[in-house]
Amino acid sequence: MTQKPLLERILDWLYPNRCGVCHRFSDNAICQDCKSKWSLIASPYCLWCGKPFDPIAKTSPLCGICLQGRYKFDYARSAVIYEGVSRETVHALKFNRKPRLAQPMGELMAEVMNRALEGEKGLLPSPWQRPSMVVPVPLHPKTQRQRGYNQAALLAEVVGQILDIPVESKILAQTKQTKPQATLGEKERWENVKGAFEVVQPEFVKGKVVVIVDDVMTTGATLNECAKALKRAGARQVYCLTFARTVSA
Ligand SMILES: [Zn+2]
Ligand SMILES: [Zn+2]
Q1: In angstroms, what is the span from residue 89 Cα to ligand 1's centroid?
Q2: How many domains are there within the chain?
Q3: Beta-strand pair 172-174/197-199
Q4: Which ligand ends up closest to the CA of 64?
Q5: Residue 223: CATH number of its domain
């Protein structure tokens, strides 16, 4: 990780009320200007995995991957497209030590979850059910030690608090050290995370509806592996909720 220049560190200390993304003065973790540039995901999107569609090219309620039935989770939803300021926000939370950003990001994610729970009832073969726990995608202990915190756990805390659903950050563990997904191509990403997650207390998730929280969904391979582990442990339904998702190909 690159150290901030000394002057910037001194300024941060003198003037802590700055936007976590553009560093301009702001009383909030993110300024209104940056927040207004988040690229919100709106209908139409794949009803299974939440991937936004080009409204003109759209021919089916499901995307290509979901038509093949590749995902093991029941549904996934994301708040914004991973581009521009949305992407900078994720990077600031994850790499620039701006944990305060989890609050506005988590607020938007909770809104998206609420909309799915209340607004999509008639559209889907098996309706959304109210989750009984929020589970963040775990980091390998070594990665967490290096970063100092798990950004997914910070987001999960905010989502859980707003929706009034308990957060369980210890029931899912990453038991295999994986390579950073960002360094891999699509095929390798699926291989890399295979068998990497385990439910520590299976009796705790048996018969439950679980929502997994992460910062970004790219191929969905990580979330899919987490969902597989939870389903193996007997979870009744597993949803995924991320702040951002990539849309390229
Ligand atoms: Zn800003
Ligand atoms: Zn899909």
Answers
A1: 9
A2: 1
A3: antiparallel
A4: 2
A5: 3.40.50.2020
